[in-house]
Design goal:
Blueprint (H helix, E strand, L loop, with lengths): L1 H21 L9 H13 L5 E2 L5 E4 L9 E7 L4 E7 L5 E6 L10 E6 L5 E8 L20 E5 L6 H6 L7 E4 L4 E2 L4 E4 L2 H18 L9 E6 L16 E7 L2 E3 L10 E7 L2 E2 L2 H14 L3 E5 L6 H7 L5 E10 L5 E4 H15 L1
Parallel strand pairs: 3-12, 3-13, 13-18, 14-18, 15-17
Antiparallel strand pairs: 1-2, 2-12, 4-5, 4-9, 6-7, 6-9, 7-8, 10-11, 11-19, 15-16, 15-18
C-alpha cells in the first residue's frame, strides 16, 4: 500500500511538473526560458546542472558513483512552432514551420508572436479569407503555409502598421498548448512530446537526489533543445558514458500495440533498430518492475539518441516513453503511462 501511495505521489508530481513546462513557450530555437526553469528545478534538488553552449541542460544525478559504464538519459524541451517568414501588405503574417508543425493541425489556434525586443503580441492562425459566408472554397482549400496566415490582435492593415509594432521576419510564433488534465487521468495538450518525459526525468532526478533511488551506475540527464530539428542529442556526451536512452513519447496508432496508459519500448524506428541487448534489458526491467509496457516499431520517428550516434559517439542506445496519441497534434497521454514509465526507469536503474 505504501509503494502504491508513493507512486501516486510521484505521478502527481510528474503531472504538475509537466503542466509547468507546458506553460512555457519553447519552439526549437527559443528555449532559454524553459531551460532556465529546468536549471532551477535541478538546483532546488541540490544538484549542479550546467547549461550547454547549445542551450540544453546537463546534470549528473549521482557523481559519487563510478564514472565508467555511465548511463545518459535524454529528453527534449523544444517543441514545434513557427517563424514569421513574411509580413503581407495587408498586415497579416506568413509563417514557416519550426520542426514538424503541420499547418492543417494548427488551424484556428491562438498564437503568441515574440518580437526581438521581448514584447509579445497575440493572434490567430487562420486560413486566408477564413469566413465561410464569404469564401465558397473554404472547405476544399488545402491547408498549407502558403494558404494560411496569422491575424494579429492589433489594429493593423498594412505591413508598415505591423513593423511599427516591432514585429519582423524571423520572429518566433508559439502555438497555445491548451493543456487539460481530466478527472479520469488523461493529460491533453500540444507538446506532450516531449515535455511530459522531461517532467518524468525531473521527477526521477528528485528521487535520486533525495536518496530514495540509488542507481548502481553513474547517471546523467541531458535535457536537449534542438530535437525537433534533428540535432538535439548530437553533442555533450559526458566522459565515461557507454549507454544512452531517449525518454520521449511512445507512439500510439494503427498497427501499434501501445496505448496511452502504457510505457512504450521502441525496437525500431525510421532510423533503424535500437541496440538489441538494450531493448532486451528494458523489456526485462519492465517485467521486473511491474510496468505495463508494449514493444513497438515506429514507422515515422527519429530520436535524440540517434542523433547522438550519428554524431559519432560509440554507445549502446534505446528509446522509451509514455504512450502519446495524436503525435505532433493535440496530443493525449494518461497518468498511468507516466507511472509505468517511472516504474520501468526505476527498475532499469536498480
Amino acid at each position: 500500500m505504501e509503494v502504491e501511495r508513493n507512486m501516486e505521489q510521484r505521478t502527481n508530481s510528474c503531472v504538475r511538473r509537466a503542466v509547468e513546462l507546458l506553460a512555457i513557450d519553447s519552439p526549437s530555437g527559443y528555449t532559454r526560458q524553459a531551460a532556465e526553469h529546468v536549471m532551477g528545478a535541478y538546483e532546488a534538488m541540490g544538484l549542479r546542472p550546467e547549461m550547454t553552449r547549445k542551450g540544453g541542460v546537463m546534470v549528473c544525478l549521482n557523481p559519487e558513483a563510478p564514472a565508467e559504464d555511465g548511463l545518459l538519459l535524454e529528453a527534449h524541451l523544444d517543441t514545434l512552432g513557427a517563424m514569421v517568414s513574411e509580413i503581407s501588405g495587408s498586415g497579416r503574417l506568413h509563417l514557416t514551420s519550426l520542426g514538424g508543425m503541420q499547418p492543417n493541425n494548427g488551424e484556428a489556434e491562438n498564437v503568441r508572436i515574440v518580437t526581438r525586443s521581448g514584447k509579445i503580441y497575440t493572434g490567430t492562425f487562420q486560413l486566408k479569407n477564413a469566413s465561410t459566408h464569404v469564401n465558397g472554397e473554404y472547405a476544399s482549400t488545402k491547408r498549407e503555409y502558403k494558404t494560411m496566415e496569422v491575424v494579429i490582435d492589433e489594429e493593423v492593415s498594412s505591413r508598415e502598421d505591423v513593423e511599427k509594432l516591432g514585429i519582423m521576419t524571423g520572429d518566433v510564433v508559439c502555438f497555445d498548448p491548451r493543456t487539460v488534465v481530466t478527472p479520469s487521468g488523461y493529460i491533453k495538450s500540444r507538446f506532450l512530446d516531449d515535455k511530459l518525459s522531461a517532467a518524468i526525468l525531473l521527477e526521477l532526478a528528485a528521487q535520486v537526489a533525495s536518496g530514495e533511488i540509488k542507481p548502481k551506475r553513474r547517471v546523467w540527464e541531458h535535457i536537449t533543445v534542438f530535437e525537433e530539428v534533428g540535432h538535439g542529442g548530437s553533442a555533450s556526451v559526458p566522459e565515461g558514458v557507454t549507454e544512452a536512452l531517449s525518454v520521449d513519447m511512445g507512439c500510439v496508432g494503427d498497427g501499434l500495440s501501445c496505448d496511452e496508459r502504457q510505457v512504450s519500448i521502441c525496437a525500431k524506428d525510421s532510423g533503424g533498430p535500437y541496440h538489441y541487448e538494450v531493448v532486451s534489458a528494458l523489456i526485462e526491467a519492465a517485467r521486473r518492475g511491474g510496468a505495463d509496457f508494449a514493444v513497438d516499431v515506429y514507422p515515422y520517428y527519429g530520436s535524440d539518441v540517434e542523433a547522438t550516434l550519428r554524431a559519432g559517439y560509440d554507445l549502446r542506445h534505446g528509446l522509451i516513453g509514455p504512450g502519446v496519441y495524436a503525435s505532433h497534434g493535440y496530443e493525449r497521454s494518461h497518468r498511468k503511462g507516466v507511472c509505468n514509465t517511472l516504474l520501468l526507469l526505476d527498475a532499469y536503474l536498480a
